[in-house]
Design a protein that fits this description.
The complex is a heterodimer of chains A (254) and B (218).
Chain A lengths: L10 H32 L5 H16 L2 H11 L9 H27 L2 H9 L4 H31 L11 H10 L4 H34 L15 H14 L8
Helix pairs in contact in A: 1-4, 1-7, 2-4, 3-4, 4-6, 5-6, 6-8, 7-8, 8-9
Chain B lengths: L4 H43 L2 H15 L3 H11 L9 H27 L2 H9 L4 H31 L11 H12 L3 H31 L1
Chain lengths: 254, 218
Amino acid sequence: MNDIPTVWDWTGNLLDGLRITLLVTLFGTLLMIAIAIVLGLMARSHRIAVRGVARVVIEFFRGTSLPIQLFFLFFGLPLLGLRFEPLACGVIAFGLNYGAYGAEVVRGSINAVPKPQWEAATALNLSAWQRMTRVIWPQAIPLMIPSMNNLFIQLLKSTPLLYAISLADIMTKAEDFRKAGGDATLMYLALMVIYFVMAYAVTLLSNMAEVIAKTRLGQHAGLRSVFTFSKPKPAEEAKLVDASSAAGGPGGAR
Amino acid sequence: MNFDLEYAGDILPDLLVAFVQYTLVATALGIAVAAVLGLLFAVIRQLRIPVVTQLLTAFIEFIRSTPLLVQLFFLFYALPGMGVTLSPMMAGVTGLGLHYACYMADVYRSGIDAVPRGQWEASVALQLPPRMTWQRVVLPQAIRNVLPSLGNYAIAMFKETPFLAFITVPELLHQAQEVGANTYEYVEPFALAGLIFLAASYPTALLLRRLERRLETR
């Protein structure tokens, strides 16, 4: 009989699992953003058919619970002749579910851009495309980021569900550890700390993105630090320096 | 293979029983725990007791940014090692309640912050003891303002009850999986489970939106 493993012995396994978790989080987030933008724009269309489709899709994916959607994708769809890899199942389920929530954020933020901005863009004879890309979106993006950050973290926090669709994510590795007789308390605490650090990193990135987006608008002082864990003033100022130097760079082009 | 209506009709009663018996009960108990605990957290934070408040804030942030599933597993699999054994349902309700209490604490806090300064000052001028100030002046106004947000978290919690399936609570998702495993027909049980959730959460969300609008106009 082997020795009882310690959390330290399991570091390699956890890192393997973490890679899968991060992969699904990353692609899930990208899909979520894409779906949020498409559905969000559709939901403010003037055509009732387009708006209706968007509303039905949004309410459907918001209303049916995420674990059920995931299970449907993983267990149900293959029987209907459509089989996805577990990894793709995770990405699709997270992307669709949180994309539907994100669509409301996109819609709300675009609607929150003051009406005179739209009128001014029209008065300046900007095309519809220019009006959106040059005037409306740059102002809507900083409004979206705090709520989007919340959704990114929700998505990240849902990734342990991958354990249920036989994907070797970090939760699965932790469960293997428990089943191998390891100290479950320590492992779950370690897992929570890992997730906490990741969530914190996501928040920091979002805050930076917000500062960058606002700096481009010339509103860099107006920091809304609702989602910061503590409110470290000097750190914010440090980010401001980053932001202003990166404003014209690739980080600012969104 | 297609959607088999007859089969769906056969399994629907079982699913509904699991839904009412476990999902709805867990939701109701979870909301009760979260609402009370959240209020307690918010008031303690507002009282600014030196060390307690900081510890509580750290705890809330930690719970909020770690996955519910890990917390549930902790309660269900790790606590027995420390001599506390909870039944699956107890662990589930505690996990849901604690997790959402941390969200609701912030909602309550925003409600408390939104109560005008003058209300506090008036309470002092009237020589109301702190207990009365909270009970009769601040909280009734604060809670009324944040009722829709609390409701939204209640719906969010409702949609996370399927997580309890993973700690062996035989709620809707668990039941759907069991039914599917017996017949190898997974499409209908999961589709029905999703529709049951939609049928329960969407009307509630609409009601909340109406409540929100009514509270705004006053």
